[in-house]
Amino acid sequence: MKVRVDVDACVGAGQCVLAAPDVFDQRDEDGMVVLLVEDPPAELEAATEHAALLCPALAIVVER
Amino acid sequence: MTETATDLRSDLASFPTARDPECPFDPPAEYADLREQEGTPSLACPVGVNARVVSRYADVRAALADPNLSSHAAPSTHVVPGGLLDRPVAPGSLLNMDGAGHARLRRLLTPEFTVKRIQALRPYVQGLVDDHLDALLEHGGPVDLVEHFALPIPSLVICELLGVDYGDRDRFQEQTAVLIGTNSDPAALEQANLEVVGFMTQLVLTKLAAPGDDLLGRLIVRAGENGQELSVEELVTLGITLLIAGHETTANMIGLSTLALLRQPDQLAALRADPGLAGTAVDEMLRYLSIVQFGVLRQATGDVTVGDETIKAGEWLVAALSAGNRDESVFPDPDRIDLRRGATAHLAFGYGIHQCLGQQLARVELQEVFVRLHQRIPTLRLAVPFEDVEFKNDALVYGVRALPVTWDEEDNR
């Protein structure tokens, strides 16, 4: 799995951090998304996909 | 039931329509028909325009994520008779802004509401909830849970966060009720608005002179450091938005969800037995109750495709959040409370760039309330017949006006 985030689109709702805290974080200075792992291991794939589904700004793209 | 001046008719020539008084936790039954019929009908709204009403989950998400659906009219303006839809957007009015202007303000505010920042507030919220439970038990039942628990907790939290003196709460709590009423007369609205603006202007001027370590103070400093100084007008509007959104929504969720859970003893027992359920329980109650009850208004700035339909430039659109949250293609058996459902992708916080900025704070407050209230007062029950509870059918944010509760003597220990 490959993950990309669009920081320009991000609105900092924090949904991805709640859903997959090992994959996503938020910058202290503006709350925007930080991708911690570009290539999440198998055990984090479901949570990563759920985070992408939750994102209100469609800022997370997951490629298989 | 309360009569409403908005004349919410039951035929679906108009939107919104009235709830069935027998089912105060459910959206009007007609919304299920809306979801099932083809297309997105154009319905008359009380404000005096027709709007395309979007009711299916996927369509609500698609509409709210579309940059060609503008938010310049306030979120629920369609339910306000005689409201003004085309006035210019006040500077700092986050909920009415689009695009780059919105992103600029949202990014200045978001650091205050990140998952990390809000988790750090959890012990403070826990202490506040415990203090109020102590006071409730000391007071003894029957007592109004709204006045003594549901309203003060979120009000205290947002006051602490913003740097507002809680002693001043009378200057915004009553006015808020007027401002979000769909039934308030124009003179009262104007007066409430003047009072809240006056109150917030005073506060903003104080913070500008000496920015303290609170949200408004940090916002002023952060904007200055980024070379994006905010005007007094912007700060006042932002402050009012946060103050109102911060206490009114969560307060209504606490009151209404407590009542709904008291009516579902099996679910309540499950929550009491397993506090680890609080996270999914809160999201399920948010979905089930959808307290932003009339949905949100948008206007197409270009032709937009929603589902199989085209919304033409200039057309108004209402995204019916409560209807989308009961869409059985996404939430099986949608009219049932299932605290284990894991319904985190609900629409109660909206969707798109305006999705609730304070949602993490709301979650933490509600989680702590859900767990602690029912653990400390396991025999909590309604102190009046259910039929006597009054619901806010005439407010942008749904809830109960009062919730008289009582409990067994043994819980006082």
TrEMBL record, chain A:
UniProt xrefs under Pfam families: Fer4_13
Name assigned to this protein: Ferredoxin
Superkingdom of source: Bacteria
Domain 4Fe-4S ferredoxin-type: 1-29
Stored SUPFAM superfamilies: 4Fe-4S ferredoxins
PANTHER family attached to this UniProt entry: FERREDOXIN
Role according to the record: Ferredoxins are iron-sulfur proteins that transfer electrons in a wide variety of metabolic reactions.
Signal among keywords: no
Keywords annotated in UniProt: 3Fe-4S, Electron transport, Iron, Iron-sulfur, Metal-binding, Transport
Organism: Lentzea pudingi
Cofactor(s) listed in the protein's UniProt record: [3Fe-4S] cluster
